[in-house]
Design brief:
alpha/beta; Rossmann fold; CoA-bd; 9 helices; ligase; seven-stranded mixed sheet; Succinate--CoA ligase [ADP-forming] subunit alpha; succinate-CoA ligase (ADP-forming) activity; single chain
Length: about 290
């Protein structure tokens, strides 16, 4: 079993005909993802050849869904067009929209996030500014390398793409049920809490690894949720212990003001909820091994 993405998922790619879309569609296909179409209104009716696999291009998400039964879209659309692409996916009521695009204006993200809510949240949004998600051995929607880990019984949710890859590689011998990169922007769709709830309900996930970073209070809220609702062991890591106060670091959401949003405050909140928190990614991996064996 996996969360959000399974071997049955039928995936389309908005922006498949662009350079990034083509590159990562080829990688997703190579990892076994069931890519059933692309979307580009200007190239509707054509096909793109990926090493002998021809993928049709449709004029809209709704048209692609009607023709293929697609239930997942991965969005590789430039920032200024991303809001329109996500709204199109929401209007088509596709089940999952994975927004890879970096640099989307916060106002645009807030707008399509609110729009999804106004439509009954029929479309789950992951991202933006994220690596996507992977259920190893089943499907891969985004830019996560498929060959760095194996399937297993660890669930991973992370704000950071790079740390997602590192944790997957360090624990590759144990493997993952699913790994979800939720992105680090100030406004995102799926949150730590959403992923924690899904992993808690997944019978094939025995341990959850949660990676956060400085800025905001998402990790503190996740800690409260874990304390009240999660029975499975959780291991955590918070990036940014050495970040200077008041300076935005990397992700648009990673800014600290006073004691709010610091790595230390997040670590303390998680530990108070019973989460073992590593000081480095490698220490976190060791804690995960110990927790899984225990």
């Amino acid at each position: 079993m996996a969360i959000f993405l399974t071997k049955e998922s039928k995936v389309i790619v908005q922006g498949m005909t662009g350079s990034e879309g083509q590159k990562h569609t080829k990688r997703m296909l190579a990892s076994g993802t069931n890519i059933v179409g692309g979307v580009n209104p200007r190239k509707a009716g054509t096909k793109v050849d990926f090493d002998g696999t021809e993928v049709p291009v449709f004029g809209s998400v709704a048209e692609a869904m009607e023709a293929t039964g697609a239930d997942v879209t991965v969005i590789f659309v430039p920032p200024k067009f991303a809001k329109g692409a996500v709204i199109e996916a929401i209007d088509a009521e596709i089940g999952l929209a994975v927004v890879i695009t970096e640099g989307i204006a916060v106002h645009d993200t807030a707008a399509f996030w609110a729009y999804a809510g106004s439509k009954g949240n029929k479309t789950r949004i992951i991202g933006p500014n994220c690596p996507g998600l992977i259920s190893p051995g089943q499907s891969n929607a985004g830019i996560i390398p498929a060959d760095i880990t194996n399937s297993g019984r660890i669930g991973l949710v992370s704000k950071s793409g790079t740390l997602t890859y590192q944790m997957m590689y360090e624990l590759r011998d144990l493997g993952f049920s699913s790994a979800v990169g939720i992105g680090g922007d100030p406004v995102i769709g799926t949150t730590h809490i959403d992923a924690l709830a899904a992993f808690e309900a997944d019978p094939d996930t025995d341990l959850i690894v949660m990676i956060g970073e400085i800025g905001g209070d998402a990790e503190e809220r996740a800690a409260d949720y874990i304390k009240a609702n999660v029975t499975k062991p959780v291991v955590g890591y918070v990036a940014g212990f050495t970040a200077p106060e008041g300076k935005t670091m990397g992700h648009a959401g990673a800014i600290v003001s006073g004691s709010s949003g610091t790595a230390q405050a997040k670590k303390e909140a998680l530990e108070a909820a019973g989460v073992k928190v590593g000081k480095t990614p490698s220490e976190t991996a060791r804690l995960a091994r110990a927790a899984l064996k225990g």
